[in-house]
Amino acid sequence: MRRKIVAGNWKMHGSNAQNRDLLSALRAGSVSLGCEVLVCPPYPYLAQVADALEGTAIVCGAQNLSQHLEGAFTGEVSAAMLADLGCRYVIIGHSERRTLFGESDAVLVAKFVAARQAGLCPIFCLGESLAQRQAGKTLEVVFEQLNSLLQVVGVEGLVDAVLAYEPVWAIGTGLSATPEEAQEVHAALRGMLSALDVDVAAALRILYGGSVKAGNAQELFVQPDIDGGLIGGASLVAQDFLAICRAAN
Ligand code: PEP
Prior knowledge:
By secondary structure, the protein is of the alpha/beta class. 42% of the residues lie in helices and 16% in strands. The chain is built from 11 helices and 8 strands. It has an 8-stranded parallel β-barrel, surrounded by 5 helices. Strand 2 (36-40), helix 2 (46-52) and strand 3 (58-62) form a beta-alpha-beta unit. Helix 1 (16-29) runs parallel beside helix 11 (238-247). The longest helix is centred in the middle third of the chain and has 16 residues, at 138-153. The radius of gyration is 17 Å and the shape is globular. The chain binds phosphoenolpyruvate. The site of phosphoenolpyruvate (PEP) has 14 residues, from strand 8.
């Protein structure tokens, strides 16, 4: 039985004061959550979040990391630093990193390896653009993204890692994939991995991301291959995020 995960990606939002309010509401509402819950604030607030959530069931993750371990890389943050700050997870390959910051498959795979070396759990994101979906290329695209990772780490490299299927056209648009559309891709990803290792595929958690809200979370999370969600906008509103977490229970 795979335990569901709900991960909040705050993106570049927040301030000390705003976070304090959000975190105190999350603390208060976190008592009876049955799924795994994490929030991923911007780097400067990681320590604030880790401190505020200490003793709760909610853990802290990062939105990005450097592929380099240490050294003269001005402005970068290493996996070891994230672990030192109390992070347990790190998002890798979010479509905003792929498109706005030009992160290639090779860079993302190097980030995955760096995260693993520091004991962080990578949440590796995959997803097709609208044009790719309309051209019938969804599975081709996500298989290619996954293959770039498998070629380096092998299927065994996915043990205790997490995948997130995030159709680019659904991120921040209010236009979620339907439960059937999402399930089809999740099942195909799991099927592809099953052909390599049945046990790794069966245990792997695959999250859905893209305009998940309190109103559609449950119908997505009851799909057999959807193991929770990666939540952007709705993770900034405590009551919405907690409702999504409860839908995963
Ligand atoms: C995301 O940023 O990963 C995301 C899914 O955003 P939203 O929930 O706002 O679509």
